[in-house]
Design a protein that fits this description.
- The complex is a heterodimer of chains A (135) and B (297).
- Chain A has 135 residues and is of the alpha+beta class.
- Chain A has 2 helices and 7 strands.
- Chain A has a 5-stranded mixed β-barrel with strand order 1-2-5-6-7.
- In chain A, helix 1 runs antiparallel to helix 2.
- Chain B has 6 helices and 6 strands.
- The longest helix of chain B has 77 residues.
- In chain B, helix 1 crosses helix 5 and helix 4 crosses helix 6.
- Chain B has 297 residues and is an alpha/beta fold.
- The chains are: A alpha+beta (135), B alpha/beta (297).
- Chains A and B meet through strand 4, strand 6 and strand 7 of A and helix 1, helix 4, strand 6 and helix 6 of B.
- Strand 4 of chain A pairs parallel with strand 6 of chain B, so a sheet runs across the interface.
Chain lengths: 135, 297
């Protein structure tokens, strides 16, 4: 392999990842995609889910991303997400209470229920819990 | 010596006030640091976002998204007003409210209605006293560490309302942080998204020789449709951060001035106190000397 590609994951609140990595696999809107160095310019929005990458030492790292999009350039891949957390930083208890809240909202079936939002919240919580469970 | 006691009491009162203003100054200073860090952390995201948005807007054409198209007949205007929760920060809130007031005065006519989303107690209280239509009030957010969720929730509501023709235009009033001594009240149009914003992003991008040729998945139009609402959230978030930072800076300045005023006042009072004390000592001495003279006979 020719070398490492720079991975940047940025949220409005902080920079989550900024390092050289061997490979990135991200959950694209139309399917997962992998990025190595020399990738053609590519842009896509991301699903709620897990992005994983192989860091310079060959370790696989996991990052939860939601409401994001990615831009891949030959030298660099940038991920902009509204929230992103490394697997070790996921707050499990918060995710669990978010799951319960979302579930309850969906079960109540109130008139003013914002279905899309509740569903997204549920999905985020489920992905966080699932990812945290693998650490 | 009633006078002496009075002055002493006053000195201790002013000293206590100075203690409080000094403490508030330091609290504001440390919060300001936090707020500035949030602003700095946000900057890379905002910059990258503007870049990407600019290149997509160019590709997809500017009139493909309903968020970019102005409504023909502007009847319902919505204003997002950012103020602080707490006072004691000089003219900060007054300036913001004045800006909002001027704006609605200019835009109000017989067939327009204006509604508000307010951040901060001061703005809410003003809207209430003026009997303005408040649709949403957020208290307890300003001045703390602001979560992006707040901006995206508010933004989503605004975007939905704009698409559903509930509002024809949305503006935001906030305080731009220009520096420690300068906070400028600003008013900006959020919706429809002004074409200038896209153009600015483009200019910035050309300066950086940005590569605009991407393979897009899904199509550029869909991606743009995805990103535009987020652009609104980002604008709101940035306005909130700016206002919050400005608030702390304004409070710091106000408290600094207050502390200085206290120092001056204590100086003056001490002088007065010493004068009175000296006068009393002199008069006592006079008494003693007079008494001694009388005894001598």
């Amino acid at each position: 392999m020719a070398g490492n590609i720079r991975l940047e994951i940025v949220t409005p609140e902080k920079e989550v990842v900024n390092e050289d990595v061997q490979m990135v696999v991200a959950p694209g809107e139309l399917g997962d995609f992998g990025v190595l160095i020399g990738h053609t310019s590519f842009m896509t929005s991301l699903r709620i889910g897990t992005l994983h990458y192989t860091d310079a030492k060959g370790q696989t790292r996991y990052v939860f991303v939601s409401a994001g999009f990615a831009e891949a350039l030959p030298e660099k891949i940038t991920v902009l997400a509204e929230s992103a957390e490394r697997r070790k930083d996921i707050d499990l208890s918060r995710a669990q209470s978010a799951l319960e809240r979302a579930q309850k909202r969906l079960d109540e079936k109130r008139e003013d229920l914002d279905f899309v939002r509740a569903k997204a919240a549920l999905e985020r919580a489920m992905h966080r819990i699932k990812l945290a469970g693998t650490r | 010596m009633a006078k002496l006691k009075e002055v002493k009491l006053k000195i201790s009162a002013v000293t206590k006030t100075r203690q409080i203003t000094k403490a508030m100054n330091m609290v504001a200073a440390s919060k300001l640091r936090g707020a500035q860090t949030s602003m700095e952390n946000f900057r890379p995201y905002a910059r990258k976002f503007a870049e990407v948005l600019g290149s997509l807007a160019e590709k997809a054409g500017s009139n493909t998204n309903p968020l970019l198209i102005p409504h023909e007949d502007v009847k319902k205007i919505h204003v997002v007003l950012c103020t602080s929760d707490r006072g004691l920060c000089g003219g900060f809130n007054t300036n913001l409210i004045e800006t909002a007031e001027k704006f609605i005065k200019n835009r109000t006519s017989e067939n327009t209605s204006i509604s508000f989303t307010v951040f901060g107690k001061k703005g809410r209280d003003w809207c209430r006293s003026e009997k303005l239509n408040i649709e949403n009030a957020h208290i307890g957010i300003m001045g703390t560490k602001i979560n992006f969720n707040v901006a995206s929730t508010t933004g989503r509501k605004l975007v939905d309302a704009y698409l559903g023709n509930v509002y024809d235009e949305v503006h935001i009033v906030y305080a731009e942080f220009k520096g420690m001594a300068k906070q400028l009240p600003q008013i900006k149009q959020l919706l429809p998204i002004p074409p200038v914003a896209a153009a600015e992003a483009l200019a910035e991008e050309q300066g950086q020789h940005y590569i605009a040729e991407h393979i897009c998945e899904p199509s550029p139009e869909v991606l743009l449709g995805n990103l535009l609402p987020r652009n609104v959230y980002i604008q709101i978030f940035s306005a909130l951060l700016e206002t919050s930072t400005s608030e702390h800076a304004a409070r710091m300045m106000a408290m600094d001035n207050a502390t200085k005023a206290c120092n001056d006042m204590i100086g003056e009072l001490k002088l007065a106190y010493n004068k009175v004390r000296q006068a009393s000592i002199t008069s006592e001495l006079m008494d003693i000397v007079g008494g001694a003279e009388a005894l001598k006979g």
